[in-house]
Amino acid sequence: MASVALILGLLPALVIGLLAVPLSVAFSIRRLRETRGVIRFRWLFGIVRFRVRIPRAGATAARPAPEGEVRAPGRKQRKSRQRWRPGGVLSLMRERAIRRRVVGFLRDLLRATHARRLFLRLRIGLGDPADTGRLWALVGPVAGLARNVSGATLRIEPEFIDPVFEVESHGQFRLVPLRLIALTAAFALSPTMLRAWWRLSRGHS
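-> structure tokens emitted (205 positions)
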């Protein structure tokens, strides 16, 4: 019993110690008509190394319905699609408190990840000028923050007419997972964001 208690007592310390070891991430992603890319991870001072390809090997697309057959979406999918409309999320960005909290979180995230040789070319539009304008109210300040990253190159273009999402990006990050978890938890559980999550869950904008 004593040994079990000792192990259970040491386990949290071991997990925290592992999460405090820096993680290096190098990525290259390109999306035009389809998304292609690779993400390389290096952890525990190079002992653990692996890569993730996008799309993942062995991933298969959904089987198309036979000609003449119409598949009804599942109840869960319909509910999710109705609740998490982009317009509902973007309407929250009109509120200064929420917008400042999101921008502040992204600023802290950029500082914590120690980006190097970051390149981003993004062309984005939601098909509705009003929604795209709300999105740009958030993307604009974030782009300004990212330009302060040493060696970063950013080209972000809004598209107000047609729905489009094109991205080309590559770079490197060096982060401490424990710090990233702490920043994310503080952001998600802040009073401002808890109110936003509650409003979204209620389907209110």
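The chain is about 45% helix and 25% strand.
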